[in-house]
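queue> holo job accepted (iron/sulfur cluster)
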Amino acid sequence: VTNVMSYFPLKTPRASQRDVILAIHGLFNQYDIVVLEGPVGSGKSAIAETLIKAMGPGHILTPRKSLQDQYMEDFQKEGLVTMKGKGSYPCLPSSGVFPSPDAQGHDTDYAKACTEISNGWSDFHNLDKGYGSARSVGRGFCVKNGKRSQALADKCQGIVRNAEGAVIEEAARPCPFYLAVAVAQGAHQVAHNLHSFLYQNFYGAYFTKRPLLVIDEAHDLEGVVRDFVSKTLSLDLSACKRLSRNGVDFPSNDASMSDWINYLSRPAFTPDKESDPEGYEQWIEKLEFMDAVAETFLADRVVHWEDVPEKNSRKVTFVPRTMGSAPANLFLQYGEKVLLMSGTIYDKDYFCRRLGLPANKVAFVRLASEFPLATRPVIIEKSLTTVNSFQAWKEDPAAYPSMLANIRTIMDRHPNVKGLIHAPSYQVAYDMAAQLTARIVHHTPDSFQEVLKEFYQRTDNAILISPICQQGVDFKYDRARFQIVVRVPYLNSSDPFIQQMMKKDFPWYNYQSLIAFGQMLGRVNRAPDDFGVTYLLDARFYQYLRRNDYLLPAWQKAAIRKV
Ligand code: SF4
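queue> job finished
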């Protein structure tokens, strides 16, 4: 019997970690799929690392690059390597291969990049700084009209082929991306980006089934698969109208996929192959993809369209609603055993249903938080709540100003520490920042990373207002000692897909808000000796918490103080 604990990568496992590792290892004798719900600080990544070393080779998939990098920082010494998308690797052809001036003199950079890749890293954020390359492999010199030209790539890599296309001569100068693929294929454990893993395998089939597949932040899986499958096409609006005048109607929202594809395949919409070969390729690729998934992912779908007259275009979007067993089939092919981990599963059966997993074949393990209750209070205070729905702010002119007054009261309670305010949208964040002014820091979609980095380092009493800090960010210790949740975190219903789901599938809409809520709670409590208080400002939270009482884990409910 393998002594699984001998693979534990850190000094000493906590009792709960040891128990859960042994439990999951044992459950894999009876089950192929285990779902682990573990809150922030439960050491999920060390649990995954132990199991992958004991049971691997394996893949670890995460939806966030920051988490992928975290895995790498923690476990590179254990042999972990990372694999990202083509956009993350620099295009560095050998000097003289391509005529363009910026392709010259890259040999040293190439050697440097190869060393990093061979060590398992793929951190080339500053493509134009550290590596002499302003372009990534996704847009490399060998890419013409959006497609990689085999002939140009061969030339760059020093590959010579015979008439049948077989390699007869090969200089040891692989493209950085393909070098990373080769390194990942040969490694015992690889931390992949979930999005690029789906793309790479759908179009390139680079990776095969391994004994263990781990998906971290698995609550994002449904959304990632949905984004992967969803397609938006821009049609020439005049052509739509012309066709309609000639008796070819625009398909109704519930038309069959073959009717849609027939309509979209009309020459009036297909970009010209000669003058716009890239547009043509992409169009055909989209239609072929939609055709391939018409009976699986897109069998039950939401179709919405809108006209953009100033661009003379009609944008049609296809989004899968429920995907049956398609998501499960998509990732189960990469692991004989699969471990799905998240801090916010809430309901195993519902989670399984959304991904198409047979719940009776899935084991569920729930870990409680080991952080002391006193360090993570969640306060909902009568005198500090207002109804903060968009509607209420619109209808009652006093509602928004009193919400701002409540925020000021909370800020005054914490005069000397940093804090975080979860705004419901960028628009509200900008407005709140303009009105609250003192201590406030905010960001635009483009400046987020930069502002966040700077905020982490501040030692004053600044407060960050952000609509995108629900997850993937770490406000440990003095980075933020309090946070304010302005509105029940329902998804923004200005998105037509979300609007439809809100009307037709409220349990889904509610479940998404619970995921955001649970993720938010974890932002300011990162370790047992960390302290962070959360304030809920929306009066609708009273009903929300009552309605979801049966889903919230006991350790989370115990922290909520109604005063
Ligand atoms: S193969 Fe293409 S993408 Fe890769 S380094 Fe050469 S030109 Fe750049």
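queue> The pocket of iron/sulfur cluster is lined by residues 91-93, 137, 140-142, 153, 156-157, 175 (CB under 6 Å).
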